[in-house]
Design brief:
Number of strands: 6
Structural class: alpha/beta
Strand content: 25-35%
Largest sheet: 6 strands, mixed, barrel
Number of helices: 2
Helix content: 10-25%
Distance between the termini: 48 Å
């Protein structure tokens, strides 16, 4: 009886936790805030961050994933490659390189509302 009770509690806990996880960790698409950065430090993937290359940071997408990013304010798009982890600020879904931010017209504002779609 004790084993059955533990199994039921474990199953219920797993089901409840899976409902609480952010949808973006399971989906290839999402919307939210984006910011940009231009450091020259190493990224989480191990490569050196280059602000002139079209790259981005995402919390959970695999390194090397290509993502189409659309600025919701002006409709401009850019395709970036995920090579870093972040952003670590609530409400933001991507940190873009300076070049990517420039392509979608968000360098002067620093942040923008964007939507992204995994393309490969």
């Amino acid at each position: 009886m004790q084993k059955i009770r533990r199994s039921i509690i474990a199953a219920v806990t797993i089901a409840a936790c899976s409902c609480l996880l952010p949808a973006e960790s399971f989906a290839g698409n999402g919307c939210g805030g984006a910011s940009w950065y231009a450091l020259r430090s190493k990224t989480a993937s191990g490569e050196r961050m280059n602000p002139a290359v079209l790259t981005a940071a995402h919390r959970s997408l695999a390194f090397g994933t290509k993502v189409k990013v659309t600025n919701r304010n002006n409709g401009r798009t850019v395709v970036v490659r995920i090579n870093d982890r972040g952003p670590f600020i609530r409400g933001r879904v991507l940190d873009l390189s300076r070049a990517a931010a420039q392509n979608i017209g968000m360098v002067s504002s620093g942040t923008a509302k964007v939507c992204y779609q995994v393309i490969s």
